[in-house]
Amino acid sequence: MVRKPAVNTREAVASIARRMGCYAKDARELLLEHFPAVLVEAVSQGKKVHLAGLGTFYPRRGRKGLRVAFRPARGLIRAVREKNGESES
């Protein structure tokens, strides 16, 4: 697999703003301030954060203490595979 450059914050914010029809400032605030704050609050309390169609963020204890793990939703995996022209196995 050829490694492609990552989508950076500016590109992700611009894409979200276009899709939502809002200002980039508002999309950036949602993506970089509100969502992480909700995630930190919930996971630090030992709760999972499930987002339908995206996946689940959950607390996980590791050797270095509390960590955040992510399990993608089946629908997300399926959509990525379809976008790449892969068939499900």
General description of the model:
It is a single chain. The protein has 89 residues and is α+β, with helices and mostly antiparallel strands. 48% of the residues lie in helices and 21% in strands. The protein has three helices and three strands. It has helices spanning 9-20, 24-44, 74-83; strands at residues 49-51, 55-62, 65-72. A three-stranded antiparallel β-sheet has the order 1-2-3. Strand 1 (49-51) and strand 2 (55-62) form a beta hairpin. Helix 1 (9-20) packs across helix 2. The chain starts with 8 loop residues before the first helix and ends in a 6-residue tail after the last helix.
- List SSEs in N-to-C order: HHEEEH
Largest sheet, if any? 3 strands, antiparallel
Question: What fraction strand?
Answer: 15-25%
Task: Give the fraction of residues assigned to helices.
Answer: 40-55%
- Estimate the global geometry from the Cα principal axes: globular
Mean pLDDT: 92
Radius of gyration: 16 Å
Q: What is the total tally of β strands?
A: 3
The span between the termini is 18 Å
Order of the strands making up the biggest sheet:
1-2-3
Which structural class matches the secondary elements? Answer: alpha+beta
Continuous helix count: 3
Q: Would you identify the regions where 5 or more consecutive residues have pLDDT less than 50? A: none
Features of the shown structure:
single chain; 89 residues; three-stranded antiparallel beta sheet; globular
